[in-house]
């Protein structure tokens, strides 16, 4: 029986959900990998391949089967009579069935130009997906640090709870020995209950934030899991690496290919054709009988004048290129402003942290003195709690500033495109 109990107790840890640690880099990577919009890149690739296949099919011969039966009110007649000759006019009812074959021989590279444009459109749309996913990373970053702050606050409350529990136990002992009044322990007990209440609030706030983070990275996270505070090395010398910049490049390249296609549309085209048929009459209109026939030939087409239509299209494309250029310029300018603001935040929080450290050190010195005074009955529990709260308020502010400092560094990296 004892062996069975030992086995069951040994299995309990295996049945419980494993505790895991998650870094900011892992969360960002999971969001990029699992975000549903990412699947659009594959779908866009499939669409592009289908469109290119359709373009390539223009190089294949086109076969058309045609048939018609007509009755007309009048037919061509020869208005003169020839001696010893009778020419019968065509029948008013006529029948024809043909198989027509058309084969493109040359069209100035129009198909290839269209295919290149389709490829450029694919890259542009796929890069738009990348831009959207990168914006999701900003949400992941904010949610990650929100959870991290709640996690650190819980740790501080646990530490504060431990100290209060020690003072409470000492107070209970003092009351038993007649060295303190029961009211001193009651006040400590009330403060402990208040901390329990705050812990419940923080637990559910962290649970809610974890659920949001879990939804963004598509990975199950529970309250036992721990987020690791990131250590970020700023790379201020690296060039801007935002996905938006590549999107602007693809847009400009796509517009340049559009101009090339406009030129190709003005090129001459050559097509071969063949027709085989059976009808009454055939090619000989003076033979009123069913005949088979065929015809082969070449077609040449070249639009010599389009009233400036191609030129206007090029002007439109150039205007769009200027729009893209201004969008790029605006993005770079705004990005530089955001980077400068992030650097100012980094410097600000770093300086505030130095003051926070001094405040916490002073508060710890005060509470050390107050602890001794409380233990010796010199001060009341109320006075001790006031200074203890001030110490932990200072520690919470210090932790908040520390996380804001790290978050501003992460934000700088995100703005620059290094995540």
UniProtKB/TrEMBL annotation:
<dbReference type="InterPro" id="IPR051906">
    <property type="entry name" value="TolC-like"/>
</dbReference>
<keyword id="KW-1134">Transmembrane beta strand</keyword>
<dbReference type="InterPro" id="IPR003423">
    <property type="entry name" value="OMP_efflux"/>
</dbReference>
<protein>
    <submittedName>
        <fullName>Transporter</fullName>
    </submittedName>
</protein>
<keyword id="KW-0472">Membrane</keyword>
<keyword id="KW-0812">Transmembrane</keyword>
<keyword id="KW-0813">Transport</keyword>
<keyword id="KW-0998">Cell outer membrane</keyword>
<dbReference type="Pfam" id="PF02321">
    <property type="entry name" value="OEP"/>
</dbReference>
<comment type="similarity">
    <text>Belongs to the outer membrane factor (OMF) (TC 1.B.17) family.</text>
</comment>
<dbReference type="GO" id="GO:0015288">
    <property type="term" value="F:porin activity"/>
</dbReference>
<dbReference type="GO" id="GO:0015562">
    <property type="term" value="F:efflux transmembrane transporter activity"/>
</dbReference>
<dbReference type="GO" id="GO:0009279">
    <property type="term" value="C:cell outer membrane"/>
</dbReference>
<dbReference type="GO" id="GO:1990281">
    <property type="term" value="C:efflux pump complex"/>
</dbReference>
């Amino acid at each position: 029986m004892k062996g069975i109990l030992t086995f069951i107790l040994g299995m309990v840890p295996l049945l419980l959900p494993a505790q895991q640690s998650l870094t900011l880099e892992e969360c960002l990577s999971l969001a990029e990998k699992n975000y549903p919009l990412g699947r659009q890149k594959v779908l866009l690739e499939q669409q592009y391949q289908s469109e290119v296949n359709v373009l390539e099919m223009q190089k294949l011969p086109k076969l058309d089967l045609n048939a018609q039966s007509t009755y007309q009110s009048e037919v061509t007649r020869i208005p003169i009579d020839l001696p010893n000759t009778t020419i019968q006019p065509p029948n008013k009812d006529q029948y024809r069935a043909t198989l027509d074959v058309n084969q493109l021989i040359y069209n100035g590279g129009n198909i290839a130009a269209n295919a290149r444009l389709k490829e450029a459109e694919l890259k542009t749309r796929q890069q738009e997906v990348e831009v959207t996913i990168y914006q999701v990373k900003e949400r992941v970053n904010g949610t990650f640090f929100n959870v991290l702050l709640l996690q650190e606050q819980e740790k501080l409350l646990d530490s504060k709870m431990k100290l209060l529990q020690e003072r409470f136990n000492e107070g209970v002992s003092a009351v038993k020995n007649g060295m303190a009044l029961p009211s001193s322990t009651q006040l400590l007990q009330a403060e402990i209950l208040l901390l329990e209440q705050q812990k419940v609030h923080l637990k559910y706030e962290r649970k809610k934030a974890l659920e949001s983070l879990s939804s963004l990275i598509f990975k199950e996270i529970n309250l036992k899991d721990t987020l690791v505070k990131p250590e970020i090395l700023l790379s201020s010398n690296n060039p801007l690496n935002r996905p938006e910049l590549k999107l602007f490049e693809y847009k400009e390249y796509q517009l340049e290919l559009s101009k090339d296609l406009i030129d190709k549309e003005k090129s001459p085209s050559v097509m071969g054709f063949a027709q085989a048929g059976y009808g009454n009459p055939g090619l000989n209109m003076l033979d009123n009988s069913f005949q088979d026939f065929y015809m082969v030939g070449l077609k040449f087409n070249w639009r010599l004048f389009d009233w400036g239509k191609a030129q206007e299209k090029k002007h439109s494309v150039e205007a769009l290129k200027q729009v893209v250029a201004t969008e790029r310029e605006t993005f770079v300018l705004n990005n530089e402003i955001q980077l400068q603001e992030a650097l100012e935040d980094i410097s600000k929080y770093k300086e505030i942290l130095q003051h926070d450290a001094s405040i916490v050190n002073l508060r710890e010195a005060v509470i050390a003195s107050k602890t001794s005074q409380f233990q010796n009955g010199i001060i009341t529990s109320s006075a001790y709690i006031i200074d203890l709260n001030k110490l932990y308020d200072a520690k919470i502010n210090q932790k908040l500033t520390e996380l804001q400092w790290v978050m501003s560094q992460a934000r700088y990296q995100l703005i620059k495109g290094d995540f």
